[in-house]
């Protein structure tokens, strides 16, 4: 589990294509300071398992399913990525509950600069729109954010200077893909509610 509070900006050192997968090496001195084989590190919102740690870098395997659902399929050597270690028991939960299981990708549509923050418009896949609500939580490239406005095909978030400076969201431009993870609580509520709603609908139809 993660919190969506990015610990550092790392960068991709190398990518090796494998059958139905890829092996990626990422530099990040903070997240590798206590990392070991088998640990989980969120890379721009994608939970990856550490295969090897060497100096200030770690290597992870990215499966086909992850490449299909996330923007990691398009990363290249030199690209910046947001990094966060798994949450430790007993620490403060600064963001919200983040699994690192990307639900899909969105596209940066526009940016509006204000004096002290930026409003970013992000395209929302139709399959995810029902999980996104105003003032609710969403994870964008591994960053826990609060939804400002939402429609059927897009939503907006407000980025403070710290987020702009310390994460990749400060560098994203219109057209860029970003990883999206909706609030897992919304998905569980839907799963539990559907049978009851169907039963009610059936009773009303009789």
Automatic annotation (TrEMBL):
Homotrimer. Its EC number is 2.5.1.9. Pathway: Cofactor biosynthesis; riboflavin biosynthesis; riboflavin from 2-hydroxy-3-oxobutyl phosphate and 5-amino-6-(D-ribitylamino)uracil: step 2/2. It holds the Pfam family Lum_binding. Keywords: Repeat, Riboflavin biosynthesis, Transferase. Residues 1-96, 97-193 form the Lumazine-binding domain. Catalyzes the dismutation of two molecules of 6,7-dimethyl-8-ribityllumazine, resulting in the formation of riboflavin and 5-amino-6-(D-ribitylamino)uracil. This is Riboflavin synthase. GO terms for molecular function: riboflavin synthase activity. Lumazine-binding repeats lie at residues 1-96, 97-193. CDD domains: Riboflavin_synthase_like. It catalyses: 2 6,7-dimethyl-8-(1-D-ribityl)lumazine + H(+) = 5-amino-6-(D-ribitylamino)uracil + riboflavin. One of its GO terms (biological process) is riboflavin biosynthetic process. InterPro entries: ATP_synth_asu-like_sf (IPR023366), Lumazine-bd (IPR001783), Lumazine-bd_dom (IPR026017), Riboflavin_synthase-like_b-brl (IPR017938).
